[in-house]
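Sharing a chain and its predicted structure for anyone who wants a worked example. Both blocks are below, sequence first, tokens second.
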Amino acid sequence: MLACVFPSSPTTDGWRYVASLARHTLADAGRRDFIRCAAPPVSSMVCVDSIDNDAAWLLGAVHDCPALRPPNGPELRSLDGDLEEVGAAISKSELSERHIRLHVICPPMTLDAWRSWQICTIVAELLLDALRNSRDVGSILVEFRAVADEAQCVIVDDGVAFSSPVRRRSAASVDALVAEIGGRIARRTGDSGSAVMICVPGVGL
């Protein structure tokens, strides 16, 4: 089993904001005290706009999918188990009626709970992006792997992607959150499908 130790809490404005939104969703009705972090500064507002407008499913799924809940303190999580949980939640709510097959591949890997939550949140958003902004999707593959001195997460679908303002906002949001954990993201789209690769350098593991 691979064991990776990450920072014990999110250290950037974007992730603190996402955690605040998720905790507010889990809070009792009317409890505004759970939104303890302000939105990121103006330079990051494209990220905030996308989260506020397009992540309703993610915030709603927090109730039923523990892997999408930000941890309350230092702990470890099984990334492979968390990704399977996210995949099951999306399959149940989004994929089954469309007969889309989802495959999740991840070796046994124990991470700091904050980083596992961040990866699962990014993967969930990318899966939903493929569903919202591609047609004729028959299957989606999610694979997380350690290669040389970095970790890679690849999301591949066989649909036909189309561009839209919503997709561009969503992409900017995900790009900003990936950058805040020290990673980079690359995208490829075509008539035969789309692929997104997220890479996190080994120094961040």
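Comments welcome. Confidence is low (pLDDT under 50) at residues 29-50.
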